[in-house]
Specification:
Length: 143
């Protein structure tokens, strides 16, 4: 599973702590040394799309891996980014055929980024697709 920092760089999961049976907190750090941002994001079971051939429902998280209720590793098939901080993660279990949705949501910052506001803005602009950059440029030209 890929996680991104607010500066646009990839983040790494340093540890995970189960909060409930269906929710885990992931402690993350930015891979970009100049940034140094560390934050917590939550990952939890949202709902099933198709029922498995066996009885166990639900999913769990161990480290940065998602597991089906049957104990098999789940494969992430699609990520639907609802906003910068919230995503729906569509998963499939190859063991029992269970298809389900997990949610990922930014929880809170442990230590803020060392980058200045201008550096963060430039990093964010570089991380968006060229078509979105052109649209942003047009919107900014109105000011």
């Amino acid at each position: 599973m890929r996680l991104n920092c607010s500066c646009g760089s990839q983040a790494v999961v340093s540890r995970s702590e189960p909060e409930h049976t269906d929710k885990t907190l992931l402690y993350c750090s930015c891979k970009k040394p100049e940034c140094g941002h560390s934050f917590v994001t939550s990952l939890g079971f949202k709902h099933s799309l198709s029922l498995p051939s066996s009885k166990p429902l639900g999913a769990s998280v161990k480290g940065a891996r998602i597991f089906c209720g049957c104990g098999s590793k789940a494969i992430i098939q699609k990520t639907n980014r609802l906003s910068i901080n919230v995503s729906d993660i569509y998963c499939h279990c190859s063991g029992c055929g269970h298809r389900f949705v997990m949610y990922r949501a930014y929880a809170y910052t442990l230590s803020p980024s060392a980058l200045t506001t201008n550096e963060l803005a430039v990093a964010l602009i570089r991380s968006i697709p060229p078509s979105a950059r052109r649209e942003l440029k047009q919107q900014l030209s109105l000011f």
